[in-house]
Amino acid sequence: MSDTHAQTVAYVRDTMLDQQDPPLNQVGAVKWIRENLFSGWLNILLTLLSLWVVYAALSHLLPWALRGIWDASNLSECRALAAERYGADASVACWAVLAERWPQLIFGFFPKELYWRPILAFLLFLAAVAPVLFSSVPRKMLWVTALAPFALFWLIWGGSIWGPIAAILGFVIGWAIMTYAAPKIGALLAVILAIIVPVLYWLFVCGPLAGALASVVPLSLQTVATQKMGGFLLATIIGVSGIVLSLPLGILLALGRQSDMFIINKFSVAFIEIIRGVPLIVWLFTASLLLNYFLPPGTNFDLMLRVIIMVTLFSAAYIAEVVRGGLAALPKGQYEAADALGLDYWKSMRLIILPQALKISIPGIVNTFIGLFKDTTLVVFIGLLDPIGLSSSIRASTDWNGVYWELFVFIGLCFFIFCFSMGRYSLFLEKKLRREHR
Amino acid sequence: MKKTVTLGALTVAALAAGAAGAATLDDVKARGELKCGVSTGLAGFSAPDANNVWQGFDVAYCRALAAAVLGDPMKVAFTQTTGQTRFTALASGEIDVLARNTTWTFSRDVDLKFEFIGVNYYDGQGFIAPKSLGVASAKELDGATVCIQTGTTTELNLADFFRANNISYEPVPIETNAEAQQQYLAGACDVYTTDASGLAATRATFENPSDHVILPEIISKEPLGPLVRHGDNEWGDIARWTLNALIAAEEYGVTSANIAELSSAPTNNPEINRLLGTEGELGAMLGLDAEWAKRAIMAGGNYGEIFEKNIGEATPIGLSRGLNAQWTEGGLLYSPPFR
């Protein structure tokens, strides 16, 4: 048979061809584009349509943004410059409003010569959260974390340094009671004392002590009133305090909701449902309007403090539900294993249950935090000048009346940076803690 | 400005008004600072400048009051208030005086237990329309779409006006002034209605202000003025007569330029002498010193100077005096005599 064939075919190759590169349209970007963008008539149509939409958006946006005017002192000057440079009906951004007012959007009405204080506070804050967020940072840095809240308060509000130091002393007293008195008087009594004694100390001793110390060694920063704070400084203070305080509170509430103890359980359920069932804006109005009437006249209960408390309670209720989801996702065997090891309730929670439950809850927790941070803009309705409120204040000056998008773009970008970093951190943490699928 | 007060705030304010004690003057002096409630930002009336200093027509009144009481126009702590928080802030004592272009109405004066100490700006609701629409009067607006801020008295005024003239309209509800400007410019509505001062300020921000016309009809009365709490008449007197001093100063021709000269020695106009404290005991009757009014006027000039500097025709807002001219010039400003 083969003979027949040999006679019909003139030439038969008996060596292998060298391997060749695939055709150009089957590799790299070209292949990707062919497979993903132009693989059929429908996809071709959709691709072209999308390209046209992207082009239409960018062709308006980019000239508007890139040709923006940076050097003008008011809106009409901006428009005049734009008309002079790009023709009468050119639509260009007036970034000059940011060039003039960005310190206001960041710091509010914080005195200009004191800007170093919030900046230093921000750096200190970063240093303080680093050991909490990243385990590669030396553990000794946790001392910075512990002391940071007092230092931050002092840096931002100013006043005598002895106030925060006297406040720290309260915690030292509580810690001393727990450490030295507990073996002698029993754990329960020690816990009660460790709560009562510092509270009494803060109520009655702390103030006079700080005053006395201040009169001996006057060491103080210029006081800055809360009304002077605005912009992203305000949003960050409220957001960060809310985030830091609501996480522990939320975890406690979640544990309380799972507790068998009747009062604790019902209290947690009622708290969560009531706080969660009412819009945040109502709580803010409560903080700013109603509390004024319940407190005795002349009481100066700082508005920002009231807002921080409300925001914290609000987000704690959400965190509690997120953490409860994590707790519920754990197999019952984990709880039983903890009991079988002879761990008491707190130890089993701390060592076995919560590490796993919190890991499951990370996306939800970070989601709540991002929501909280953006919700800080709601304080505009109770007269605090958050970035959005400041943008309308800036617009109210005769120079900049009529500027909208430039301010909103800037504010949006800043919020995006904050929220995007939080989201990225959450992803990083999830990857780091992923144990089971390695 | 005219946001209807929520029922809750109203009840609470009524319950608790007068809770803060009397003798505001002593409190202010002890504190060394006047707490003044202003708007979070309204073009020409109150806005912070690039150096964080508040400027504006309402702000100028607070500075004059601080100058009269404390001797320094800069000793004012401004509290930003919104339409919802302004009355509770005043009732609870968080602020000493509210100068937030608030319309003087019966219920606010009587039911909310506040005391309007005068009128610093006579406003009224007007309409703005594109010139291309070709209307010369609001009565020609039959069938027009109207941008209107919801929940304000302007909404009710509008309905009344159109019903009284037996013409129809279609409302386009809008939440804020900023939104309204954008909607109006985008052509979502034929006309936009709000206070005439607001319309002028709004038009000033347009790229082509001359393409838009403010219709001549003013369909409501909006007397805007500062207010204090009920129950402290001495403080109310100081606030009222500080405003009157600014108005009277314009009437008598006392300006920030000539006040030093006029107050150095008694002039032959006894009214000026009593106002500036070179004659009589008016300051002592208020519990202040003799030069209180002089300081108030020097803080930002007389009423006319404050008007021209912040919202007058030379500013981008470009309001004419209109009703806010002196009574001698056909306006409504009429200060009771200083005697």
Automatic annotation (TrEMBL), chain A:
Coiled coil: none
GO molecular function, one term: transmembrane transporter activity
PROSITE patterns, per database record: ABC_TM1
Domain ABC transmembrane type-1 residues, every copy: 232-426
Subcellular location per the Swiss-Prot or TrEMBL entry: Cell inner membrane; Cell membrane
Pfam families from the UniProt entry: BPD_transp_1
InterPro entries registered for this protein in UniProt: AA_ABC_transptr_permease_3TM, ArtM/GltK/GlnP/TcyL/YhdX-like, MetI-like, MetI-like_sf
Keywords: Cell membrane, Membrane, Transmembrane, Transmembrane helix, Transport
GO cellular component: ATP-binding cassette (ABC) transporter complex
Record-level GO BP terms: amino acid transport
Family affiliation: Belongs to the binding-protein-dependent transport system permease family. HisMQ subfamily.
Name this polypeptide is given: Amino acid ABC transporter permease
Lineage, opening ranks: Bacteria, Pseudomonadati, Pseudomonadota, Alphaproteobacteria, Rhodobacterales
TrEMBL record, chain B:
InterPro entries: Bact_solute-bind_prot3 (IPR051455), Solute-binding_3/MltF_N (IPR001638)
Domain of life, per lineage: Bacteria
Sequence ranges assigned to domain Solute-binding protein family 3/N-terminal in this UniProt record: 33-262
Name the UniProt record assigns to this protein: Amino acid ABC transporter substrate-binding protein
Gene Ontology biological process terms, A to Z: amino acid transport
The keyword Aminoacyl-tRNA synthetase belongs to this UniProt entry's keyword annotation: no
Keywords on record: Signal, Transport
Family assignment from sequence similarity: Belongs to the bacterial solute-binding protein 3 family.
Signal peptide: 1-22
